[in-house]
Design goal:
mainly beta, Lipocalin, globular
């Protein structure tokens, strides 16, 4: 089972601010906050409104940290890419859910604008050659193996609690192996548009992946990776 570590305090502040924002907006009638409702896997749904994720407005961002005895000679990395998929909202909560996909080849690494947004530990400027080398390693056979596993898939199992702030249980499939995610999410919307924000941490080893290392393990990638997801979805035309 994939282990989700305790949220950092700053992540909790981000979610709290988003939830405060959501209180000022109106959810679609079919997605109004419930009271202890449960939303089961999208594979179990039998109808409901389909919201198509806006790929241009949605993003997954991964913050990857250096580690090891000589970590100071390495760099922290920001990886980001678009998200596709669907969110299903039904009058019956148990029939709702979601499925999202991240095309592995679309992931970008250490774009200057992204590093600038993160600042702090990510403020160092990296050369084009360094960025390309990191991306090649990430997509290579030892890490994500994009040639054989082109998609990362996340699919809901259950959403428990109020719909505007549910605890999510989901399955994530990476490199053909499936683990379990558990994380809180903030959901809000206006004029038929849904926005979902989630911030959580995963361990690579729990996905069957070995953190990348060089120099005999003197410089490695930290097992824990911070993940941020922002989804914007609108009612599907069909």
């Amino acid at each position: 089972m994939l282990i989700i570590t305790q949220e950092k305090a700053c992540r909790a502040v981000i979610l709290s601010c988003l939830l405060a924002l959501s209180a000022c907006q109106t959810l679609p009638d079919s997605a109004a906050p419930g009271n202890g409702t449960t939303i089961t896997s999208v594979t179990a749904r039998h109808g409901g409104q389909r919201y198509r994720i806006d790929t241009q407005a949605s993003q997954i961002r991964l913050l990857v940290y250096r580690d090891g005895p000589m970590a100071r000679v390495g760099h922290n990395h920001v990886m980001a890419g678009p998200v596709t998929g669907d969110i299903y909202v039904s009058d019956t909560a148990a029939a709702s859910g979601f499925r999202i996909e991240i095309p592995v080849e679309s992931l970008q690494v250490d774009e200057p604008a992204l590093r600038g947004e993160e600042g702090g530990e990510f403020s160092a400027t990296l050369s084009d050659q360094a960025r390309k080398g990191t991306r090649d390693n990430m997509l290579g056979a030892e890490v994500l193996d994009a040639a054989h596993y082109p998609l990362i898939v996340i699919e809901s199992d259950a959403l428990i609690g109020p719909r505007w702030n549910p605890d999510v249980s989901a399955r994530i499939t990476v490199r053909g192996k499936t683990g379990t995610l558990k994380f809180p999410a903030a959901v809000f919307g206006q004029a038929g548009e849904l926005t979902v924000i989630a911030v959580f941490t995963v361990l690579q080893t729990e996905l069957g992946m070995t953190p990348y290392s060089i120099l005999g393990g003197a410089v490695t990638v930290r097992d824990a990776i911070d993940i941020r997801v922002r989804l914007v979805a609108r009612p599907a035309a069909d």
